[in-house]
Amino acid sequence: MSFAAPTDPLTGMQAARFGLYLHFPYCLAKCPYCDFAVAVARQVPEERYANAVLAELDARLSLNPELRTKPLESLFLGGGTPSLWHPRHVARVLEGIAARMSLAPGLEVSLEGNPERSDAERFAGYRAAGINRLSLGVQSFQPETLKALGRAHDAAMVEGAVAAARKADFPVVALDFIYGVHGQTRAQVEADAHRAVALQPEHLSTYALTVEREVLAEDTPLSKQLARGELSLPEDDDVVAMARTVRDVYGAHGLSRYEVSNHARPGFSSRHNALYWTGGEYLALGVGATGMLLTPEPHRYVNLRSPEAYLRAVEEGRVPEASREALGPEELFAERLSMGLRLVSGVDWEAVCERYGQPVEPRRAEVERLVAHGFATRDGRRLALTERGADVHSAVCARLL
């Protein structure tokens, strides 16, 4: 099954307009490239954390009661490692959300998991709890690349996890990969791509490794190694070639590119991720989670990144925010345009300008230059980046913003 969601008129993408992101911060080990809010724990406070996220939800709905009746079109459990959370606690949290909010028909409910055997043993329980989209953090099949990324699984575990997911009857199985890893070759990336499509997933996400400190939420072991000159990443041209190889292999096997780093079979694009790319609202719960709401005024908030600080705040009846940022027209415009240009369908750039009170004419000449030089195409008012343009997405957006 694919999931129901409205079509965003500015991009033509099916995307949730209101979603909920729930962050589960606990892991058995922290990967050296990870800058997410993650806590390494052998004993996870599973029940306490379930109580806390539902208490946070109550607090946020008390502050913003109109969200109770706003149709929730996507729900995403990310991490961390949500597949460490016992299915009975996941079921209780999902039931608690359903009791407090309005769920849209065809709700997409995603859970991130690892391919380890212990995680796969829980898949049937997650399916019974209401999860209908499973996203597995594969990253690579290559032993050398997995070691470089600090991953504990191997290729056989990935194949076993996909088999377990199919046996559990998940309608959608998504696989996530990383390329541009230190020591990785283009041939290895191509081999990963062929092995990935052979598993017949509905969705594939493949991201370039991010190590540079200035674009991370916090320092990571790999970013520190890079700063000390101890880490050598593939050359930029090699990384671009890896990305093109991935696109070619996926496309040849029926997984069309719909966003810079995402491919899917027809009808199986991620409605929740598309929410981020099309300016939708999202409530966020849990340690380190980031939410963006348009009411009562547009704002973004970030929760406390320390699990103990988060739990203490919630249990004391406080909203566990670390920061809140008001979003004015300029911030909303920049995000809407740059995220829209990540989509292969492109975005009605003039409508984005008009919606947020930004002038069109000063940007028109730059749009024409992008089209003339092969970085973008234009269909009516819809501007879309070519593959060449997508490779330099950030630079293109800087010229338009």
From TrEMBL:
InterPro entries assigned to the protein according to its UniProt record, in alphabetical order: Coproporphyrinogen-III_oxidase, Elp3/MiaA/NifB-like_rSAM, HemN_C, HemW-like, rSAM, rSAM_sf
SMART domains to which the protein is assigned, alphabetical: Elp3
The species this protein was found in: Corallococcus sicarius
Name this polypeptide is given: Heme chaperone HemW
Designated gene of the protein: hemW
Gene3D superfamilies according to UniProt: 3.30.750.200
Classification of source organism: Bacteria, Pseudomonadati, Myxococcota, Myxococcia, Myxococcales
Residue ranges of domain Radical SAM core in the record: 12-256
Molecular functions per Gene Ontology: 4 iron, 4 sulfur cluster binding; coproporphyrinogen oxidase activity; metal ion binding
Domain of life, per lineage: Bacteria
Keywords, in A-Z order: 4Fe-4S, Chaperone, Cytoplasm, Heme, Iron, Iron-sulfur, Metal-binding, S-adenosyl-L-methionine
GO cellular component: cytoplasm
UniProt-annotated location(s): Cytoplasm
One protein family per Pfam: HemN_C
Function: Probably acts as a heme chaperone, transferring heme to an unknown acceptor. Binds one molecule of heme per monomer, possibly covalently. Binds 1 [4Fe-4S] cluster. The cluster is coordinated with 3 cysteines and an exchangeable S-adenosyl-L-methionine.
GO BP annotations listed: porphyrin-containing compound biosynthetic process
Family that this chain belongs to: Belongs to the anaerobic coproporphyrinogen-III oxidase family. HemW subfamily.
Keyword Cytoplasm in annotation: yes
